[in-house]
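Collaborator request log, item 7. Partner lab (contact: R.S.) asked for a structural prediction of DUF4238 domain-containing protein to inform their binding assays.
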Amino acid sequence: MAKSTEHPRKHHYIPVFYLRRWCRQRDGRLAQFHRVGPTKRLFKKWVCPTETGYKEGLYTLPNLEPENQNWLETEFLGLVDKNSAEARNKLIAHEDLSPDLKDSWCRFIMSMIHRNPEKIAEISKVWYEGYDDLTRRLEPRYDELRQEGDPPNYAAYVASQKQGTKERLFANLIKGMMDSEPIGLVLNNMRWAVWDFPHTWKTLMTSDRPIVMPHGLAHDDSYVGVALSPRRMFLACNNRERYEKILKNVSGDRLVAAHNDAVVRQAKDYVYAASHFDESFVDSRLGHQPPQFLGWIPGQYKKPDGWDAIPQSKGNFPAVPEKRED
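Returned to partner:
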């Protein structure tokens, strides 16, 4: 069981286990590219997986008891990453996944779509503003909507709410998005494969937006690609015959180049590789277009209908514990 009483400051949106496959053996570091400063100059350095891909307090749930404030990081995402690491290792070894591990890998893909700082900030903004707006609209209609057993008036209703109600509901929303049963079912039913590139001149890169999914999930040409290591890539697709034909007729070097082009262009801040050999390749792509952002963006996309409905979680994950009454 994860230890909620440990209060980690670093909340990793790029799991440490995922980046380790790019680390060199002699010191456990991987090549990182990122832009800094007003000129956005590209910098490169060797980093440990624990030193990158995190933001302090990213998933903290304020107003909860201290032992529960890091629940999303230590309990939910901690379990997601633990199970995903096992699934990733079996994929790399070309071993069959049990149904539970297949679900775990689907969960990893969904979590990587939603757990980056920009997505968390936007979901948080929409959730808390929507919750407060709903609360304001409830007050003048409370007497009309009140049912038997409810507090006698709105003030009593507010007083009856447990501390941290908003935060617990927000945690359930995040959990439901990263463990969505409908999306997980779609991913599960796609055709899965692991492609090896043992002899290509270049190796696979990854980034802070590692999931390549250019056509959504509902089309015949939809696919999900993610580098597992510098030499192996996971692919899930709706039309396996099409992608097997591509694999047969397109060189490995071209496939690696296409993946790297996508994963670097859609990155926000960080690109990772097994070496700094491709500095010019990264410099010509990183930050030259908006980062991959699946979901709504203020002023650009309309909020989807039913945005305030909490998705149902597929896995057997517990909810945030309630405060214990002494």
